[in-house]
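Cross-check.
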Amino acid sequence: MTGTILFQQLINGISLGSLYGLVAIGYTMVYGILRLINFAHGDLLMFAAYTAIYLIGIFTLPWQISFPLAMVITGLMGIVLDRCAYRPLRDAPRISLLISAIGASFLLENLAIVIIGGIPKGFPRPPMFDHVITILGVRVQVLTLYTPVITIVLLLGLLYIVYRTKVGKAMRAASKDFEATRLMGINLDRVIAITFFLGSFLAAAGGIMWAMKYPQVNPFMGVFPGLKAFIAAVLGGIGNIVGAVIGGFLLGLGEIMIVAFFPEVSQYKDAFAFVILILVLLFRPTGIMGEPMIDKT
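Predicted model, tokenized:
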């Protein structure tokens, strides 16, 4: 493999990994507080993509307004998801929350089929993201470069909220000791709702960029990216925000490099992610940056 091709694949891997990391943040934030794997999280990518399509197509809003608005609406959808599917089961056994998450995922997918239909729709990619530039002799689509930059900017914004605001302090307290935080008079329902909003907002950003990268939207488009993002969160350390992004980058790079170096096994690239999950659970269950978890039950 020449240096040019290797550089090209490296850029592709970083771009893909940044998408995984962006979505993985939502998994890791919710798990950090509720110890819940929100399996409906991946379907919020689909919800954001369809929302952006209809804001542009029906309401004729420019993409500069449609994309941020779709992210906000998806964040609110995350709050609705928590309010309807998880809050009534807050004090129930953890398995009940897990079953509810799986049910919410199926509900969102099938609602999309009933309301929108199962025929894939094209995603309106803005022309500015179609430009191709040359870097060190490699032709790179501008969107590929924007993706990791946007991911890092959103990550820094989230870290500011988590470590420099009162609600962030409440989130960190809840992640350490749920019951003690409640006894201190903190409104946990509000804190959890904000957590779902932020996680869903970032998932929407990932969903919109995913739809621009692979411009075909369907009701099941969030399933595999959601699963990959979950694996990235486990790899980086479930419950650790920075670890989720690092896990996403590593998973994306690994997938792309496997295909680049071993093209004959490219059809098995999805299996690579699940092999990584099994190895992490076997040899380092807390992930790269994870800490030993305290059982909150």
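The CA atoms of residues 110 and 213 lie 24 Å apart. Strands lie at 121-122, 132-135, 138-141, 216-217. Passed to J.P. for a second look.
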